């Protein structure tokens, strides 16, 4: 098995990342109010530009591959669309920002371009989602708000392939599918398993997390006929509205924060357990397949070593030391032996929470590689065909299916 490509971009957390079309550049947020653009130079990434316009921490970034535009959202309640334009003084190409009129009074939390790249959705803490489109007469981006029946902060959004339907995960413990149809922008959509008549703000589906956790991530399958969402109760749920059926896998690991589909029957999710986990299935049922991270491989960085135990934050040497001390009633006060420095390392490539997983190579429905970024400042590219089975990683998941 070939090892993943590991790049240490910073000593601080990467809250979001997005690649350009040919993967020669990547835009990242290093938990600051600026966007840093890195360009590939051989086997390394070098910082080339800094985009500065926001006043507070940037929460999400998305790079439109066909139009080469970047959209950013921030805790300052604003979003900007960045486009390469010639500098009138020097003539060189620079990234120029255009402010988006969001009309929200809380932080913007997540942003994604639609498949046609003619609009984008901005989730927010204002219990609303801003659907933004370009107004050629005013030469600016305007928004319409999806509000009902959202009751709390929206944490993630994802577009259906038809460019109209939008999935949203919220802190009100709900995953929803809503219509973001804009009359002057979209063509009349064809009927789908989610419905036929789709005026703006139509609720096409609403699903509750299994045991009441925030819904951190949502994602449509490549066909758009299924929806997956990950919640803070360490569950991942796949919904088939045409069935209708829903399948939930309850994990014994920490919660997942981000996910992406690789084929119509498989997806990759990651989060607090510091490793990308693979799930596969169909309308007949879903299962946890394994991990893209091999805890037994000899990694050049990180705490993994030959013969290492199962990967994951709950299997780090430091965690096991505290767990054993607790079960035996051993004090860690003055006079107790200090744990070696290496015991704080995890048996995974990522040494902290994975904050974002994105498609890297392939096409929707046939993805061959994904990229992850994390709170450890690393950017990692994984081959999705190299999966370490769940039995070898110590991962466990209990699947339950139900009709809806």
Automatic annotation (TrEMBL):
- Look up keyword Glycoprotein and say if it applies: no
How is this protein annotated for GO cellular component?
actin cortical patch; Arp2/3 protein complex
InterPro entries (UniProt xref): ARPC1, WD40/YVTN_repeat-like_dom_sf, WD40_repeat_CS, WD40_repeat_dom_sf, WD40_rpt
Gene Ontology BP annotations? Arp2/3 complex-mediated actin nucleation
Main site of residence? cytoplasm
PANTHER family, A to Z: ACTIN-RELATED PROTEIN 2/3 COMPLEX SUBUNIT 1, ACTIN-RELATED PROTEIN 2_3 COMPLEX SUBUNIT
Q: Does the keyword Heme apply?
A: no
The protein's location, in the record's own words, is: Cytoplasm, Cytoskeleton, Actin patch
- The source's superkingdom equals Eukaryota
Spans of the WD repeats are 51-85
Where in the sequence does UniProt note compositional bias of the Low complexity kind?
A: 300-310
**Under which name does UniProt file this protein?**
Actin-related protein 2/3 complex subunit
Q: Where do the record's region annotations for Disordered lie?
A: 288-310
PROSITE patterns with a match to the protein in the record:
WD_REPEATS_1, WD_REPEATS_2, WD_REPEATS_REGION
**Which keywords does the record carry?**
Actin-binding, Cytoplasm, Cytoskeleton, Repeat, WD repeat
Q: Which GO terms describe its molecular function?
A: actin filament binding
What's the stated role of this polypeptide? Answer: Functions as component of the Arp2/3 complex which is involved in regulation of actin polymerization and together with an activating nucleation-promoting factor (NPF) mediates the formation of branched actin networks.
Family of this protein = Belongs to the WD repeat ARPC1 family.
């Amino acid at each position: 098995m070939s090892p993943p490509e590991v790049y240490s971009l910073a000593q601080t957390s990467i809250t979001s990342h997005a690649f350009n079309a040919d993967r020669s550049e990547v835009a990242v947020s290093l938990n600051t109010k600026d966007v840093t653009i890195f360009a590939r130079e051989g086997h390394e990434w070098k910082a080339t530009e800094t985009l500065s316009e926001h006043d507070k921490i940037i929460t999400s970034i998305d790079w439109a591959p066909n139009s080469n535009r970047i959209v950013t959202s921030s805790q300052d309640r604003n979003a900007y669309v960045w486009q390469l334009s010639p500098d009138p003084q020097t003539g060189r190409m620079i990234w120029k920002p255009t402010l988006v009129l969001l009309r929200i009074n809380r932080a913007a939390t997540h942003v994604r371009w639609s498949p046609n790249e003619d609009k984008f959705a901005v989730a927010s803490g204002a219990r609303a989602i801003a659907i933004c489109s370009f107004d050629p007469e005013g030469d600016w981006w305007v928004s319409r708000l999806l509000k009902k029946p959202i009751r709390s902060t929206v944490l993630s959004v994802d577009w259906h392939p038809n460019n109209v339907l939008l999935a949203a995960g919220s802190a009100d413990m709900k995953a929803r599918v809503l219509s973001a149809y804009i009359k002057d922008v979209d063509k009349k959509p064809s009927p789908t398993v989610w419905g036929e008549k789709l005026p703006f703000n139509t609720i096409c589906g609403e699903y509750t997390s299994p045991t009441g956790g925030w819904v951190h991530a949502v994602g449509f399958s490549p066909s758009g006929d299924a929806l997956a969402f990950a919640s803070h109760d360490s569950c991942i749920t796949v919904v088939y509205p045409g069935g209708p059926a829903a399948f939930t896998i309850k994990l014994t690991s920490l919660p997942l924060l981000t996910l992406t589909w690789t084929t119509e029957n498989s997806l990759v999710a990651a989060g607090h357990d510091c490793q990308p986990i693979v799930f596969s299935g169909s309308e007949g049922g879903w299962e946890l397949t394994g991990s893209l991270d091999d805890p037994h491989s000899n990694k050049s960085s990180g705490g993994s070593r030959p013969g290492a135990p199962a990967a994951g934050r709950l299997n780090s040497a430091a965690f096991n030391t505290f767990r054993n001390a607790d079960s035996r009633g051993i004090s860690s006060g003055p006079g107790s032996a200090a744990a070696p420095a290496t015991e704080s390392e995890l048996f995974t490539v990522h040494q902290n929470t994975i904050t974002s997983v994105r498609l890297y190579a392939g096409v929707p429905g046939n993805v061959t590689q994904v990229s992850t970024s994390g709170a450890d400042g690393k950017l990692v590219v994984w081959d999705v065909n190299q999966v370490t089975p769940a039995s070898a990683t110590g991962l466990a998941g209990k699947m339950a299916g139900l009709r809806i």
